[in-house]
Amino acid sequence: MTLAAISGFVAVAVGAFAAHGVHDPKAQEWLRTGSTYGFMHTMATLACATFIQVGARRARYAPAFFLSGVVIFSGSLYAMALGAPRWFGAITPIGGLLFLIGWAVLAWAARGVDPQA
Predict the structure, then answer these.
(1) Does some domain include residue 24?
(2) Which is deepest, 36, 44, 110, 112, by most CB within 10 Å?
(3) Total domain count for the chain?
(4) Within its chain, how far is the Cα of 106 from the centroid?
(5) How far is it, in rounded angstroms, from Cα 74 to Cα 65?
């Protein structure tokens, strides 16, 4: 929960920075994209707690994929927006793959919920 809260804070801060502190359109786009995906997966991480409460115990594995994805996907976009070389974006898809794995884990977890319970 602490990491999710920090991730949400960073996503909002970076989004605001993109809107008010950056003038380069490509850098703004990278920051906005990273912020949007970061925030979306922060919320998914928080939703995992609800999934677990309703019996989807396997949902406890998804936050590691979501938050790792935020670090790699959003982090690489943030780095490029702040001046890292463009080749740094080659790791961005790894973060996207981690997001996809997190969603697949949630689907797997949901199948384990007994709707009659």
Answers:
(1) yes
(2) 44
(3) 1
(4) 14
(5) 13
Q: Is residue 32 part of a domain?
A: yes
Q: Which amino acid is at 15?
A: G
The range of the structural domain enclosing residue 27 comes to 2-110
Judged against a pLDDT cut of 70, whether residue 116 lies above it is answered with no
Element at 103 (helix H, strand E)? helix 92-110
Interval 55-107: pLDDT, tens: 889 999 999 999 999 999 999 999 999 999 999 999 999 999 999 999 999 99
Give the pLDDT band of residue 35 (cuts 50, 70, 90): very high
pLDDT given for residue 114 in this prediction: 67
Cα 69 to Cα 56, 89, 99, 114: the distances in Å are 21, 14, 5, 29
Question: For residues 1 and 47, what is the distance between their CA atoms, to the nearest angstrom?
Answer: 10
